[in-house]
């Protein structure tokens, strides 16, 4: 072998420990993400009961009126939700980034809303506020003599989803706007452009990548959501159909798998499209250092308009929460703008009966978060700090979880692991650890991003200095990398934890008994019966508080640890 | 900031940053590639025990790459590196005992100054009281004993630099590698700290490599310098030798100011002449070979100006520019189509020439260098 070849080889070599880690992670991702997803797709393409490849299932799908209608309904609801979410988000984004505006902080905090409450919880409260016989329509009818169909059929889904998910667009667009160099705006003004033309021709194109990222996220989330339509009694959408097929007809029926495959395809398509639209256009002129767009003082008329718009959106956004809070204290609330009376009984009942849900949630979500930061940290290290073969593959595989809807992963687990049984005959798929694994796989991309960001902030020379002073790779990771990454790891944990705590779609598929169910499942059960709505709302409020407290506590810890470390360079 | 290194007490030499038996560094036929990019080409170098050695060269020429190769953070595609006779290329960085001070200092922000310095000793599993003693000794050696409990972010640039040095010498490395350790300091600090570094190196008798692209810095404190250019070592030597006898145009240009005259070899009446212009030519001394691309090189302070007469080679020219530098006057003189710079010592009362004056540039023949690329 030539010297050159030896040099090359040396560069690719990895320690045995690193290789073991790669193999372990690969095994995990294979077993709990790729194989279940591939199984679903495989079943969709095989003839029922045989292993012959066929397209017949897809033909059946498109010959069935219900499915075709469901498909177009899902497309319609997702697209319209994006449109409405855009209408809610854009004014807020522009007002808070381009003008001097008092409530900017408040609006930014809204970004956490989709994280701390699943949309289906709000759906019930929205029904009471905006439904055919809800508070708003009762008042309208009484005073103006007409009603508005906010919540009828698909409208209701669009309304709930767009209100719930618009912060994804708000945050992405605000970030893009904030990063635009003020010189760009000044250059345009210098060339004679101003006002709305300036916004349309310069500012918005530069914020486009952020907008598309947010919009595609909203589209995918709405398309995959199962519980909101079900709770609003809308069954002819794609994700509910997948669930209903599998739970009512059984695991052997190919239609559930065909629908799942279509869900995956649409997710991938939406993400691809948001990237592809931008390809070939050069918008990376976005620079830092310019200090972002100059914030202008608002004129009187503008200010009235701005505060009016913000107040309206805030009222809408907070309505599910307000409704939920009212409902949780209500004795009876129907056919009246406000509850008939108030009581603590709902909380009493929930705390007595449902502490098991809370306990389960805490266990599942923390385990999932833990798995995520361990895997995310390890993958981030392997990708950013080693040249080991297969590292890019791990990264890609972990991120691909973004494209697998919860309901699909649940179906995949059932199909893959139902036949596998423990010695006592219990199918593997019914163990609650499966739910933990599903949750961790679904949230892995977020934790991975957080770990990447944390590790990218650590200068490699800090690690080299440790090695230079005698610490091997393992010791360097333990003594230098981990302590420095702690903030990012914690942030990743919290994101995983708080989103896993309120996830429902995989949960609905995998949970078999009440005693093993987490809060989201309990909420869903409560909310299905009118009598359960009071206690359900109380449980919802508890869930929101639980997640919010955890989120803010960890932010506090992260900030303190960073302060202790001093200004990082 | 004016803390000087204290004189070593016996205790320090015994169990502090103690005097190490200095090691020799031998680098043979080293080549380094980054992918397709050939960054270091056939490097051969021998650095003597206890020597303060500089890698000097323009940005991007491979100095850091070679330093990192010695420390174990790069791989050579061929060649050998020996420290104290031992081949180190196959060892992982943490086994090499090659102390490196990083350009960014790389102090760990989550550890105090004392814990930073203790790190390497803890990794060597030394007993706790010995760690404490050696941390104290190392910090005192660099005059930082009183700041042991601070966080790195609470230190000035110069203080951070000293902590980085203390952290490295605490483990008593076999050799010390310094990658532009002064580049983050302001000009005044640089002069002070470089002298302290030299002091310390002498006291510890540590073979040291110092990377810089500042020639003044290298000249001031280093025993010998390797001038890097384009991934190769262009010349190795003592600072004064490099200045007086550069081996190539590259080195002459890189170290100090050099006048370079282009011309061609002609033979007139059996005598070899270097023709600069049609009317100006310089006799070529016997024994000098002139090939295409050879230029005539001389330093501004080696030539002088005169009206007429005198010994040596004369180049007629016209004063085109005058700069007063304090101790001397720098004249720009047009010789043919090129401007040469001549430094004339300034004496009060002496007459100063004016722009446009016709002069002769007088070149003593022992100061003429005939160099190619
Ligand atoms: N990790 C890397 N991958 C690819 N090329 C690299 C890498 N590091 C350095 N290089 C290239 O190798 C060459 C030598 O780099 P090196 O850092 O050794 O230069 P240097 O002499 O230390 O320069 P400076 O004085 O600017 O620090 C440069 O052309 C650089 O672009
Ligand atoms: Mg360098």
TrEMBL record, chain A:
Domain (ABC transmembrane type-1) ranges: 71-270, 358-554
Topology in the lipid bilayer: Multi-pass membrane protein
Intracellular or extracellular location(s): Cell inner membrane; Cell membrane
Keywords: Cell inner membrane, Cell membrane, Membrane, Transmembrane, Transmembrane helix, Transport
One GO BP annotation of this record: transmembrane transport
Spans traversing the lipid bilayer: 21-45, 75-95, 107-130, 150-171, 202-223, 255-278, 304-335, 362-384, 396-414, 426-445, 480-502, 537-558
InterPro entries per record: MetI-like, MetI-like_sf
CDD domains registered for this protein in UniProt: TM_PBP2
Family: Belongs to the binding-protein-dependent transport system permease family.
Protein name: ABC transporter permease
Organism expressing this protein natively: Devosia limi DSM 17137
UniProtKB/TrEMBL annotation, chain B:
Subcellular location: Cell inner membrane
One Pfam match: TOBE_2
SUPFAM superfamilies per the UniProt record, alphabetical: MOP-like (SSF50331), P-loop containing nucleoside triphosphate hydrolases (SSF52540)
Membrane-topology annotation of the record: Peripheral membrane protein
Domain ABC transporter: 25-255
Gene3D superfamilies for the chain: 2.40.50.100, P-loop containing nucleotide triphosphate hydrolases
GO molecular function: ABC-type transporter activity; ATP binding; ATP hydrolysis activity
GO CC field: ATP-binding cassette (ABC) transporter complex
Keywords: ATP-binding, Nucleotide-binding, Transport
Family stated for the protein in its record: Belongs to the ABC transporter superfamily.
Name of the protein in question: Iron(III) transport system ATP-binding protein
Organism: Devosia limi DSM 17137
High-level lineage: Bacteria, Pseudomonadati, Pseudomonadota, Alphaproteobacteria, Hyphomicrobiales
């Amino acid at each position: 072998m030539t010297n050159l070849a030896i040099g090359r080889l040396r560069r690719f070599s990895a320690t045995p420990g690193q290789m073991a880690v790669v193999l372990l992670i690969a095994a995990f991702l294979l077993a709990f993400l790729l194989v279940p997803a591939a199984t679903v797709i495989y079943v969709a393409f095989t003839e029922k009961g045989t292993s012959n490849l066929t397209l017949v299932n897809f033909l059946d799908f498109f010959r069935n009126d219900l499915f075709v209608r469901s498909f177009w309904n899902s497309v319609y609801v997702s697209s319209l939700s994006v449109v409405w979410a855009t209408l809610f988000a854009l004014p807020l984004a522009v007002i808070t980034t381009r003008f001097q505006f008092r409530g900017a902080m408040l609006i930014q905090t809204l970004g956490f809303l989709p994280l701390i409450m699943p949309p289906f919880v709000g759906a019930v409260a929205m029904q009471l506020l905006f439904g055919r016989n809800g508070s708003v329509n009762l008042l309208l009818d009484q005073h103006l003599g007409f009603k508005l169909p906010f919540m009828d059929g698909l409208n209701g889904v669009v309304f709930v989803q767009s209100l719930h998910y618009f912060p994804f667009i708000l945050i992405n667009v605000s970030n893009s706007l904030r990063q635009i160099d003020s010189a760009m705006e000044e250059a345009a003004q210098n060339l004679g452009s101003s006002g709305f033309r300036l916004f349309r021709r310069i500012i918005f194109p530069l914020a486009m990548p952020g907008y598309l990222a947010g919009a595609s996220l909203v589209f995918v989330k709405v398309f995959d959501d199962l519980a909101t339509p079900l709770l609003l009694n809308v069954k002819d959408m794609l994700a509910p159909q997948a669930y209903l097929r599998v739970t009512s007809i059984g695991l052997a029926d190919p239609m559930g798998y065909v629908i799942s495959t279509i869900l995956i395809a649409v997710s991938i398509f939406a993400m691809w499209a948001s990237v592809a639209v931008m390809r070939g256009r050069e918008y990376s002129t976005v620079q830092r250092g310019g200090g972002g767009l100059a914030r202008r003082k608002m004129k009187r008329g503008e200010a009235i308009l701005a505060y009016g718009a913000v107040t309206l959106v805030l009222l809408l956004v907070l309505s599910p929460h307000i409704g939920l809070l009212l409902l949780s204290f209500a004795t009876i609330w129907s056919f009246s703008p406000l509850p008939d009376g108030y009581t603590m009984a709902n909380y009493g009942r929930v705390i007595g009966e449902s502490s098991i849900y809370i306990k389960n949630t805490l266990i599942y979500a923390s385990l999932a978060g833990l798995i995520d930061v361990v895997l995310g940290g390890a993958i981030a290290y392997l990708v950013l700090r080693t040249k080991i073969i297969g590292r890019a593959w791990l990264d890609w595989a972990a991120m691909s979880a973004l494209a697998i809807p919860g309901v699909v992963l649940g179906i995949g687990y059932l199909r893959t692991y139902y036949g596998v049984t423990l010695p006592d005959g219990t199918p593997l798929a019914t163990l609650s650890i499966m739910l933990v694994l599903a949750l961790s796989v679904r949230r892995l991309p977020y934790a991975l991003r957080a770990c990447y960001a944390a590790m990218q902030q650590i200068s490699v020379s800090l690690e080299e200095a440790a090695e230079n002073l005698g610490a091997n790779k393992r010791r360097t990771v333990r003594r230098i990398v981990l302590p420095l990454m702690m903030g990012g790891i914690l942030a990743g944990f919290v994101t995983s934890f708080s989103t896993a705590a309120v996830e429902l779609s995989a949960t609905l598929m995998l949970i078999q008994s009440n005693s093993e169910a987490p809060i989201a499942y309990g909420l869903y059960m409560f909310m299905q019966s009118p009598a359960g709505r009071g206690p359900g709302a109380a449980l919802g409020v508890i869930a929101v508080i639980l997640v919010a407290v955890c989120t803010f506590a960890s932010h506090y810890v992260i900030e303190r640890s960073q302060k202790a470390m001093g200004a990082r360079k | 900031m004016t803390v000087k290194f204290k004189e070593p007490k016996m205790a320090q030499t015994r169990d502090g940053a103690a005097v190490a038996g200095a090691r020799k560094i031998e680098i043979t036929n080293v080549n380094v590639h980054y992918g397709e990019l050939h960054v270091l080409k056939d490097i051969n170098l021998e650095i003597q025990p206890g020597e303060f050695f500089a890698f000097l060269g323009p940005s991007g020429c491979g100095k850091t790459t070679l330093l990192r190769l010695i420390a174990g953070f790069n791989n050579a595609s061929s060649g050998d590196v020996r420290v104290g006779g031992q081949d180190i290329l196959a060892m992982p960085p943490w086994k090499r005992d090659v102390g490196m001070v990083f350009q960014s200092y790389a102090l760990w922000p989550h550890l105090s100054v004392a814990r930073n310095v203790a790190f390497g000793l803890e990794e060597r599993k030394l007993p706790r009281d010995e760690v404490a003693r050696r941390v104290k000794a190392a910090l005192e050696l660099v005059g930082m004993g009183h700041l042991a409990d601070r966080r790195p972010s609470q230190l000035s640039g110069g203080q951070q630099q000293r902590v980085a040095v203390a952290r490295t010498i605490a483990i008593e490395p076999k050799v010390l590698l310094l990658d532009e350790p002064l580049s983050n300091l302001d000009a005044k600090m640089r002069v002070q700290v470089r002298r302290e570094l030299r002091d310390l190196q002498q006291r510890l008798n540590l073979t040291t490599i110092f990377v810089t692209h500042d020639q003044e810095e290298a000249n001031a404190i280093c025993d010998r310098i390797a001038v890097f250019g384009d991934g190769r070592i262009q010349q190795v030597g003592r600072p004064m030798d490099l200045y007086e006898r550069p081996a190539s145009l590259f080195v002459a240009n890189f170290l100090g100011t050099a006048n370079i005259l282009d011309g061609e070899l002609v033979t007139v009446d059996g005598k070899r002449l270097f023709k600069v212009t049609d009317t100006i030519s310089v006799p070529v001394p016997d024994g000098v070979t002139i090939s295409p691309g050879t230029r005539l090189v001389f330093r501004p302070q080696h030539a002088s100006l005169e009206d007429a007469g005198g010994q040596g080679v004369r180049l007629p020219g016209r004063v085109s520019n005058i700069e007063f530098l304090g101790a001397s006057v720098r004249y720009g003189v047009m010789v043919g189509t090129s401007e040469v710079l001549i430094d004339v010592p300034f004496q009060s009362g002496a007459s100063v020439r004016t722009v446009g004056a016709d002069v002769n540039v007088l070149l003593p023949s022992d100061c003429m260098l005939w160099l190619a690329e």
